[in-house]
From TrEMBL:
It catalyses: Hydrolysis of DNA containing ring-opened 7-methylguanine residues, releasing 2,6-diamino-4-hydroxy-5-(N-methyl)formamidopyrimidine. Pfam families: Fapy_DNA_glyco, H2TH. PANTHER family: FORMAMIDOPYRIMIDINE-DNA GLYCOSYLASE. This is Formamidopyrimidine-DNA glycosylase. One of its GO terms (biological process) is base-excision repair. GO terms for molecular function: damaged DNA binding; DNA-(apurinic or apyrimidinic site) endonuclease activity; lyase activity; oxidized purine nucleobase lesion DNA N-glycosylase activity; zinc ion binding. Residues 2-87 form the Formamidopyrimidine-DNA glycosylase catalytic domain. Keywords: DNA damage, DNA repair, DNA-binding, Glycosidase, Hydrolase, Lyase, Multifunctional enzyme.
Length: 239
């Protein structure tokens, strides 16, 4: 499933259609074709793992799941689940799910690291109040707290912050927690360029690696979230 930085890359590719009017909309998984056709794309934004298409009076959210993709002015041999035509140009989405939401739908951009409205202290407070007794390695995949954060970012930021994923949230020192949240913000944004260069996964420190600077990278599956976890135990401290 694409993580938040990948969705930002998608957004950058699709922003060329901002201000353009949809001449036709289709797709086998698109019950909103009549509402979309004839409407102008005001903006293309993201929230977590969602692509947001703003049509002024409503939003269309696009979720890519495990196998979703899209092509611009190209087609696959399979049917599109969602399509947008702009005269001679078109976008074909495959294996995606879409929803239509009213513009007043609350996406809390203050916990979205890709938003200019992001507030680190708000995330920290929310994390401690609601998930203080949970393991940090589990909570990092909770989309209510960390929209867009996936398993690659989870493993990398914990390593870079020298925090073991089995650490209890409320036991992590305040300064160290702030460091982790800042690392999440910086790493997530830096990942966009690495994805565009197609070197994101290959440039990782511990994700799917066997060793780091002659230190063994321990691989195991976190029991609660069932996700692969990579740890350098001599570097990452358990709190």
């Amino acid at each position: 499933m694409p993580e938040g930085p990948s969705i930002v890359v998608f957004k950058k590719r699709l922003q060329r259609f901002e201000g353009e009017t949809v001449t036709e909309s289709g797709g086998y998984n698109n019950p909103f074709a009549d509402s979309i056709s004839g409407r102008k794309v005001v903006s293309v934004e993201t929230y977590g793992k969602y692509l947001l298409l703003d049509f002024k009076d409503f939003l269309i959210t696009v979720h890519f799941g495990l196998f979703g993709s899209f092509l611009i002015n190209e087609s696959k041999k399979v049917n599109t689940s969602f399509s947008l035509f702009f005269g001679e140009d078109h976008i074909n989405f495959y294996v995606v799910k879409i929803k239509k939401l009213q513009k007043d739908h609350a996406f809390d951009q203050e916990i979205n690291v890709f938003s200019k409205k992001y507030k680190l202290e708000k995330t920290k407070k929310f994390l401690l109040e609601k998930y203080g007794d949970k393991r940090i390695g589990d909570v990092l995949l909770n989309q209510d707290v960390f929209p867009g954060l996936g398993n690659i970012i989870r493993n990398e930021v914990l390593f870079l912050s020298k925090i073991h994923p089995e650490s209890t949230v409320e036991k992590i020192p305040s300064k160290k927690m702030k460091e982790l949240l800042q690392t999440i913000k910086e790493f997530s944004k830096a990942s966009v360029e690495l994805i565009e260069q197609k070197i994101w996964k290959s440039s990782s420190s511990v994700y799917k690696k066997k060793e780091w600077e002659d230190q063994e990278v321990l691989e195991y599956v976190a029991p609660k979230i069932k996700r692969k976890t990579y740890v350098v135990e001599k570097v990452q401290k358990i709190y």
